[in-house]
Amino acid sequence: MSLSVLSVASELFPLIKTGGLADVAGALPGALAAQGIATRSLIPGYPRVLRALEAAEPVLDLGPLFGGPARLLAATAAGLDLLVLDAPHLFDRDGGPYAGLDGQDWPDNPQRFAALAQVAARLGQGALPGFLPDVIHAHDWQAGLVPAYVHYWEGRKPGTIFTVHNLAFQGQCDASLLAELSLPPQAYSIHGVEYYGAIGFLKAGLKLADRITTVSPTYAAEIRTREGGMGLDGLLRDRAGALSGILNGIDTDVWDPANDPALPAPYTAETLHAREASRRALRARLGLHEGREAPLLGIVSRLSWQKGMDAVLEALPALLGHGMQLAVLGAGDRGLEEGFERAAAAHQGRVGLHLGYNEGLAHLIQGGCDALLVPSRFEPCGLTQLCALRYGALPVVARVGGLADTVIDANEMALAAGVGTGIQFSHASRDALEAALARLAALWQDRPAWEKVQRNGMATDVSWARPARHYAALYRAVAPGRVPRV
């Protein structure tokens, strides 16, 4: 059965990206095509998006939308079939998708992303001639009102899937905006969009979508606990029958060490010696000394407490004590940025730092580091460890969320069985990370075992093929004529 799906996301790689949501929204449509699913992606018309369009045709006049005219553009870019919400008064501004150049959230974010959700719901009702999606797949809080509009508005009701990429970002606004956001009075209740006296975009999606997914089985379990539920655990336990954990994949054409233009030399699991060119290039790029007596570690991450970056700084003396080096790419909390700046200045040649994000450097770190640190305190799925597996860098990860689901700990029994793909440790603390670094140093001394773990990781299927099959099954379950809502 062929299905038509409208994917709704606030960012989409390679057009606009702040995190893993963009990677997922950009890669999943291609994988779904093999499952007989035709996907069109609705995204905001940020300046960067409009500049990237290969061809754009106005297809729908949306009239006034939150204070200004809006229209829908049909376009293609990077092989994606796009519908772009062109509303300059909402999206044509300097800064990022969610915040200005000063780092402060745009004050009209509720209206901006309600507009995106309203257009999605109108498309679900057939507003665009020739396009009638069977299912709307809404991603994260920015699209959280999509299920609410489908639920409360009169008209056709396509199936709805809501994916949580990170429960920590919930999208709340003042309850006085209910009418302005075109939500009826009955929507403001515990059974609707009300959340602790406010309107909750994420809560609306969780409550009113036909099915909920999150991006790993372990995270789906964690968010149903008081410790991991961030105030939504009761709702998620109540809707446990509608909740699925589906691991993310990565685009294995974009992330392919055998054909990566960001690397100085290609390599495969059979030519691991060719990684040395990337290692040398990475050291040169970040000013690190040459040497092979200990592993070169990499970090590609937001520099935040959630990502455990404070634990890395606390464990840095132990890391250096093992003779290891550290290459860091990221940005985030200013206090942590300053901590890594001090570390790089104090340990020149041993700690290299690039503040910000650079896609080419991210690829070079994956190809050039020996191991990748991912010490998150919670991690819905994580993509960087999947890239590390693909590139033969041993992921060293905290045992949480998708990190626990994707990395097989190379403990003694796993090594004996030949199945380990990285190193897990219990939680993001100095002591736990130091113990993991000691294990890594010991494994480094056993070169055949190290290379076996590398090859195991590179043989792991980190593509979208398996996740796409799971999503296709969910779409078919909620399409019109579907089974009753759970």
UniProtKB/TrEMBL annotation:
Domain Starch synthase catalytic: 5-237
Lineage: Bacteria, Pseudomonadati, Pseudomonadota, Alphaproteobacteria, Acetobacterales
Binding residues for ADP-alpha-D-glucose: K17
The protein's name: Glycogen synthase
Domain annotation Glycosyl transferase family: ranges: 293-451
Family of this protein: Belongs to the glycosyltransferase 1 family. Bacterial/plant glycogen synthase subfamily.
Gene field: glgA
GO biological process, any: glycogen biosynthetic process
Listed InterPro entries: Glyco_trans_1, GS/SS, Starch_synth_cat_dom
Main EC class the enzyme belongs to: transferase
CDD domains to which the protein is assigned, alphabetical: GT5_Glycogen_synthase_DULL1-like
GO-annotated molecular function: alpha-1,4-glucan glucosyltransferase (ADP-glucose donor) activity; alpha-1,4-glucan glucosyltransferase (UDP-glucose donor) activity
PANTHER family referenced in this protein's UniProt entry, alphabetically: ALPHA AMYLASE DOMAIN-CONTAINING PROTEIN, GRANULE-BOUND STARCH SYNTHASE 1, CHLOROPLASTIC/AMYLOPLASTIC
